Amino acid sequence: MTAPGLSARLVVTRPAFRLDVSFDVVPGEVVALLGPNGAGKTTALRALAGLIGLAAEGHITLDGRPLHTEPPDRRPIGMVFQDYLLFPHLSALDNVAFGPRCRGASKAEARRVAAGLLERVGLAAQAGAKPRRLSGGQAQRVALARALAVRPRLLLLDEPLAALDAHTRLEIRSQLRRHLAGFDGATVLVTHDPLDAMVLADRLVVVEDGAVVQQGGPAEVARRPRTDYVARLVGLNLYRGSGDGARVKVGELPFSTIEQVDGPAFVAFSPAAVALYRTRPDGSPRNLWQAAVEGVERHGDNVRVHLGGPIAAFVDITPAALADLDLSPGRQVWAAVKATETHAYPA
Amino acid sequence: MTTTSRSGSARGGGRVVAGRLPWVLVVPALLGLAFLVLPLAGLLIRAPWPTLLQRLSEPQILEALRLSVVTATIATAVCLLLGVPLAWLLARVDLPGKRVVRALVTVPLVLPPVVGGVALLLVLGRRGLVGQWLESAFGVTLPFTTAGVVIAEAFVAMPFLVISVEGALRAADQRYEEAAATLGASRWTVFRRVTLPLVAPGIVAGAVLCWARALGEFGATITFAGNFPGTTRTMPLAVYLALETEPEAAIVLSLVLLAVSVVILASLRDRWVNAA
């Protein structure tokens, strides 16, 4: 319990909703809470900040000190809100200086700290500007500077990139990554965007319906999703079955895999790994099944085919292949996946 | 060209083919309008325009004017000092029985001011619950003094300020206050450095409204503070008195109060008149 960093069990009960998630963050680590809207991610972040209370079973320990008994203004935290919430009546500089002032710094000292941080996020020239005159990306960086100005031991970011347009987002994301890398405390980031989570975080904690359903490094989560939500996020077809050595049985369908799994198992493969045929292909060692086309939609430069049948699956094919196969909803096709293209792992 | 003009008129709500206006609505509406406007027009028509300035500079009028402005301003200051924290309490703190408290705050809005004056006398009068003690302990008597005028005005006007400020507090985005708390601001600092600047327009509007109400106060003032020239005879009291003796002076004073009302209405038109 005296380990440095954050150790939290966040329990919040609401009518018709219960959040109960546990996770640890070591100093210097960035953990992303990833989940669909309404999963309880923001509730978890607000509980860490002390803006909502924990149920009796919950606890928050930061650097060996209990945090859940302190009001928000006594917690060593910095928080970046989704729409930044820069004080509209204060300049960028005074927004950043607000925290140090509240924590006892003199006006001159607070402004010196604030000017240094604005410089670091590249906004020295905007120090005197009121928030309404800042662009979205600039406001985001002022909000980050404001949160860092109190020298927090725990940095909380609520959907830090959600309010930005696609172009700004790309640039701010890489800047944010650099600033987070330079921060030596624990960071908890909330996002519903898998890309933000994978780029910014060292570890992902996937939250669904108020509970942790999977956690691990971005590569691990991307390769071995454990719920349909995560599989959709990382763009994989995912099935639960039971393994007996080199095969996993999904429903009635046996999947040959290269990994050996016994007992409850997951099988995952990419939509691009599936080949479609009008007639049954001969003499191939592939995993093969017959399915009905349920729908066809554009997916980037390709076409995504939704298959029903024994197992629901997404298949990505080229527009040319679509024309050759003459696919339309209701048509029966054969689908095939090589064993080397699948991943099997224990459930 | 045609399309733009058409969309323009559609947005303005014009070009809709409506039926004839029903006279059962139009006639009472026009009568109502006349009822509200004619008395004011009468005031303007009957005003002694040629001698207006001279009458305005008569000592009793100037005295009443000065007393009214001073007491209304002090009463507004008192209301700000007590009313803004009260509004904050109602808007931000989970009090038990808050609905009852809010109802009590609004009572002076609907209470006949004379009743308010009687109530003030019963509490702060020489024999009153608190007044008795005030006199024996500090030798302070409030009824029939200028301080009494301020108290009567503040009693009647404070609900306007509280309701206006509470509305502004409820409308303000409380997440700014949360952001301030995460930056280490105590609740007092949050109030001083974030809440107050955010609701400043609401406070100004409430204070102006409060001042206008205090300036026009009659019933509670005459009941609690009496009608002594120089110390408690404010403009509304002077108007009432002058009507008996010097109708022209009453008209002049009324014009001044009307002008003040119009100016206040104009300055607040965005917040109150068009708000709905």
UniProtKB/TrEMBL annotation, chain A:
Domain Mop: start-end pairs: 282-346
The record's annotation in Pfam families points to: ABC_tran, TOBE
Q: Which domain of life is it from?
A: Bacteria
What keywords are assigned to this protein?
ATP-binding, Cell membrane, Ion transport, Iron, Iron transport, Membrane, Molybdenum, Nucleotide-binding, Transport
Q: Which InterPro entries match?
A: AAA+_ATPase, ABC_SmlMolc_Importer, ABC_transporter-like_ATP-bd, ABC_transporter-like_CS, ABC_transpr_FbpC, Mo/tungstate-bd_C_term_dom, Mop_domain, P-loop_NTPase
Q: Which Gene3D superfamilies match?
A: 2.40.50.100, P-loop containing nucleotide triphosphate hydrolases
Could you give a GO molecular-function term held by this entry?
Answer: ATP hydrolysis activity
Q: By its UniProt entry, which SMART domains does this protein fall under?
A: AAA
Residue ranges occupied by any ABC transporter domain in the UniProt entry: 1-234
Biological processes per GO annotation: molybdate ion transport
Identify the GO cellular component terms for this protein.
Answer: membrane
- Put simply, this protein is called ABC transporter ATP-binding protein
Q: Which organism is it from?
A: Nonomuraea terrae
Automatic annotation (TrEMBL), chain B:
Alphabetic keyword roster = Cell membrane, Membrane, Molybdenum, Sulfate transport, Transmembrane, Transmembrane helix, Transport
Q: How does it sit in the membrane?
A: Multi-pass membrane protein
Q: Does the keyword Transcription regulation apply?
A: no
The ABC transmembrane type-1 domain is annotated at 65-268
Family matches, as Pfam families? BPD_transp_1
**In the record, what terms sit under GO molecular function?**
ABC-type sulfate transporter activity; molybdate ion transmembrane transporter activity
Q: How does it assemble?
A: The complex is composed of two ATP-binding proteins (CysA), two transmembrane proteins (CysT and CysW) and a solute-binding protein (CysP).
- What protein name is recorded for this chain? Molybdenum transport system permease
The scientific name of the source species is Nonomuraea terrae
